[in-house]
Amino acid sequence: MIGRNQEIERLNELYNSCEAELVAVYGRRRVGKTYLVNETFKNKFTFRHAGLSPIEMAEVQGESPLRKQLKHFYNSLLLHGMKKSRCPDNWLDAFLMLEMFLEKKDKGQRMIVFLDELPWMDTQKSGFITAFEGFWNTWACYHNNLMVIVCGSATSWITDELINNHGGLYGRVTCEIKLSPFTLKECADYFSQKKIRISKYDIVQSYMIVGGMPYYLKYFMKGLSLAQNVDQLFFGSNAYLKNEYERLFTSAFGNPEMIKTIVEYLSTKNIGYTRSEISEGTGYTKGGTLSKALNALEVSDFVVKYVPFASNKKESYYKLVDPFCIFYLKFVKGQEYLTDTFWQQSVTSQSVVSWRGFAFENVCLNHIIQIKDALKIGGVITKQTVWHKGPDDKDGTQIDLLIQRNDNVVNMCEMKYYSKEFASDKAYHAKIMERRSLIEERIPKGMIVHSTLITTYGLKYNDYSGDFDNVITIEDLFR
To answer: Taking all residues of the chain, what is their mean pLDDT, rounded to a whole number?
Structure first.
């Protein structure tokens, strides 16, 4: 398994704890949650079950979603050795069956119950949470040899209904593990394990497109260039990820159409929008429903929320940062004339070159830990933000990333994705000096600004290279 060392270590600690454990493993769809649990425990499961996808259920007519989920749960019990009886009528009966099954299986050894895609089981008016609460509080928590692992791609459901539950499940989750996409280093390790020869420059580009998602990376083929692989993923007649965008939202959100509308609106502006602007642009009122949708996107890592540097209004912006969505919406969705070799033909086009610049910013935002390590400030408390010109701000400017540190330094970061060393010139020197001056006017006395360049192959030495106090390359991002 690539990476996940801390998660595996934690899961094994919980397995050996000799206490009842309720573990929530969550994260964005395709990030590898099920694979992590399966590979860590392999053949140690006493019972395992996965909820039925709402996509597949919608395609099958007849029984209600609740009835389909209950029948599927009952079938899983039969497959694990329960004697045939009758299909439960509700989730209370279903969990009673599970309790009786586990009682018969209990030999005093550690038992693992793995409930995958738990949010899918909670269909409308199903009473699932009440039944699960009863299962844990009345029976499971008193069995010190029981470890219950629940998993789900609907991150907001896991956080709202389990981790931050204010009812009977309050404080019952004994460990939460949020699984993040691969880092650049882990992507490189994955490609190496698959014997795929690819440069770090192109690994960064692959990250711009699929964002370090293990499931997407598995479709990359040995012997093909990055451009050829991208064509097979998105633009070929049988593209592997042809339907992924639609499935992404239907499987992870209870209101997929609203979520898609917000995501597609956010994709139109790199710096993002305020909540008021999102409401105006999408037509959704500024009520609890919009707030809940934005929160769901934030906890699922599709969106980041930030307050711009030196903003007088202190109003938060929501910025779309999911590489897959950004790429798909820019180059795939709604395009009428796409050939099977579209990406191979477009790699040098101006639109792609421009996109790389913005996409590289998101790569850097996803590797703040590596950037801080390169600056030797891993242990320093920091806050990351951006600065962009507001409608009434005559002096404002666009700064890709500002790292505000509690050791009295602000790193003013410029991100440049170049195929060679970046060379500053007189015009760029003037721009850097102006930006530094504007920041210095807005920070407390005693703080200082360090100009920081984050680029691919470093800085070319010339009369203006001294403008930068720090230079970070992709080699640093791969650490």
So the answer is: 92
Dihedral pair phi/psi, residue 3, rounded to 5°: 60, -150
Q: Which amino acid does the sequence have at 142? A: Y
> What number is the average pLDDT over the span 203-211?
97
Report how far apart, in Å, the C-alpha atoms of 66 and of each of 151, 249, 418 are: 19, 21, 53
Q: Over 80: is that where the pLDDT of 336 sits?
A: no
Containing 412, the helix (H) or strand (E) segment is strand 409-416
The pair of three-digit structure tokens given for residue 137, joined into one six-digit string: 């509080």
AA identity, residue 163: I
- Please determine, for residue 312, whether its predicted confidence score (pLDDT) is greater than 90: no
200 contacts 188 by C-beta, under 8 angstroms = yes
The single-letter code of the amino acid at 248 is L
Q: Per residue in 182-198, pLDDT tens?
A: 999 999 999 999 999 99
User: Residue 134: its pLDDT value, please?
Assistant: 96
Question: What distance in Å separates the CA atoms of residue 249 and residue 153, rounded to the nearest whole number?
Answer: 10
Partners of 23 in the beta sheet?
149, 175
Confidence at residue 60, expressed as pLDDT on a 0 to 100 scale: 66
CA distance 25 to 33: 7
428-441: buried (b, 16+ CB within 10 Å) or exposed (e) per residue? ebeebeebbebbee
Tell me the pairing of strands 470-472 and 146-152: unpaired
Residue with tokens 């030797």: 376
Q: Are 114 and 154 in contact (CB under 8 A)?
A: no
Nearest to 414 by CA among 375, 457, 454: 454
SS3 403: strand
> With contact defined as beta carbons under 8 Å apart, do 188 and 71 qualify?
no
Query: Where do the domains of the chain lie, and which CATH numbers do they carry?
Result: 5-178 (3.40.50.300), 182-354 (1.10.10.10), 367-477 (3.40.1350.10)
What is the per-residue pLDDT across 256-286, written as a single tens digit (0 to 9) for each? Answer: 999 999 999 999 998 899 999 999 999 998 8
44, 47, 58, 175 from 109: Cα distances, Å: 11, 14, 40, 21
Give 223-287 as a DSSP string: T--HHHHHIIIIISTT-TTTTHHHHHHHHH-SSHHHHHHHHHHHTT-TT-EEHHHHHHHH---SS
- The pLDDT of residue 62 is above 70: yes
Tell whether the torsion through CA atoms of 400, 402, 403 and 407 is positive or negative: positive
Report which of 449, 428, 477 is spatially closest to residue 309, judged by C-alpha positions.
449
- Give the whole-angstrom CA distance, residue 64 versus residue 67: 5
70 class by beta-carbon count within 10 Å (0-12 exposed, 13-18 middle, 19+ buried): buried
**Which pTM does this prediction carry?**
0.91
Site of tokens 């079950």:
49
Nearest to 274, CA basis, from 158, 160, 390: 390
